[in-house]
Amino acid sequence: MNPRSGWIQEFWRIVVLIAIAWAAGSILDQVYLFLLLALLAYSFRNLYNLRRLSNWLGNPQFSDIPIHFGLWGDIYSTIARVSLRQSEREKRLTALLNEYTASTSALPDGAVALDSRRRIRWFNEAASRLLGLQPAKDVGQPLLNLFRNPEMVEFIRRADYADTLEISAPGNVDRKLEVRLAPYGDEQILLLAQDITERLRHERMRKDFVANVSHELRTPLTVIGGFIENLQVSEGQADGRLKRPLVVMAQQTARMRQIVEDLLLLARLESDSARTAKKEIDMAWMVGAVTLECRTLGVDVPSIEGKSSSTRRVIGDEKQLRSVVTNLVVNAVNHTPTEGMVTVKWRDQGEESLLEVIDTGEGIGPEHIPRLTERFYRVDAGRSRERGGTGLGLAIVKHILQHHDSRLEIQSRLGEGSRFVCRFVSSRLVD
Ligand code: ADP
């Protein structure tokens, strides 16, 4: 109904009422009394309608909406329209909420929503299963009241969104979880827990496989290498037709032995960080020793200079740290022309100390830099093989530095040279 028509009807109703009261009052010479009676009748009618409205609002059923005409009819029909719209919106929201709950329940990963005070607001079914949360008991509880694991407590407090944490599932040490945090809304956090038990099992199988294969190859390669050496000696005394093939066989066997040794070293580094010795290593001395050694690598090596301005020593494993310096310097030598320059520095930078290996060699394209520490990644596999490279050197360097709580940074420009920096943290340094 047009809302204006209700007003017009109401207006005419009042006019007619006043007119009747006036006419009756005039006939009986009681105009004021009849006008008062008309006003009372009109007020009682409105009071009655207000009561009906109030009753209906107490239990608003769309089917029971009072039927009326005029202004009251307008009011009822507007309420009917609004309540219909409201109930449709409610239905839509309920359907959306059901769909949302169903989809989060289907998620294989646990999700727990935390408020700004780290209290649990909500979690899905996987979170109940993986983290042992109970909807009736745990919603509204501070998360840290439920997880006493010190690593988890520190992880939640730190709230570093780039970091992940590996923990055993509460009440099941065999199940491993990877936990990460994601911020959302106003200081709220979503905690995500993924079951990584299977992934870790496959990872362990892969590592064991590589370690076992490498170990099994060691003995046959030593035997083959020994026979080749013997053959080289006897061939030297004979007519020398096999000399060249034997040289190539010896080179390739040496390369395979190097790959096997590197793979075994990587496997050891991955499996047991506790075995890393903790001695005070004089890095300045090591820089001098390795540069001296590398100058004797051949006649066509570039100039190599060692510059140590720091006297700090690194707490760590001498063999491993020597392997870091040697790998980086040998790489620099291999990728720098004879007329170029390789500089090895050991210096302090504030609380940290840096081991830098800088060369003026061929440099590395920016697309390769993020992948250099992957196993077997080589910019030019053919040339690396020619030079006796295994593609494992920088992977070993990265792992050893991780064992020393330190990291490798690589800067390079094609045609200008490279700078490899090992950044040692203060907790690993002694003056
Ligand atoms: P490789 O045994 O091939 O040297 P690494 O893991 O030590 O294996 O190095 C990976 C690749 O990184 C190398 O193949 C080479 O292409 C590149 N690289 C390493 N150091 C340098 C450097 N100083 N200059 C240019 N390229 C380098």
Descriptive account of the structure:
With 431 residues, the chain is α+β, with helices and mostly antiparallel strands. The protein has four domains: 100 residues, no CATH class; 89 residues, PAS domain (Beta-Lactamase); 73 residues; 152 residues, Histidine kinase-like ATPase, C-terminal domain (Heat Shock Protein 90, 2-Layer Sandwich). The strands form three sheets. A five-stranded antiparallel sheet has the order 2-1-5-4-3, with helices on both faces. It has a five-stranded mixed sheet with strand order 7-9-10-12-11, with helices on one face. A hairpin with a 3-residue loop joins strand 4 and strand 5. Helix 11 runs antiparallel to helix 13. The N and C termini lie far apart (91 Å). The structure holds adenosine-5'-diphosphate. The site of adenosine-5'-diphosphate (ADP) has 22 residues, from helix 11 and helix 13.
Any descriptors?
elongated; 5-stranded mixed sheet; 13 helices; 13 strands; alpha+beta; 431 residues; Beta-Lactamase; 4 domains
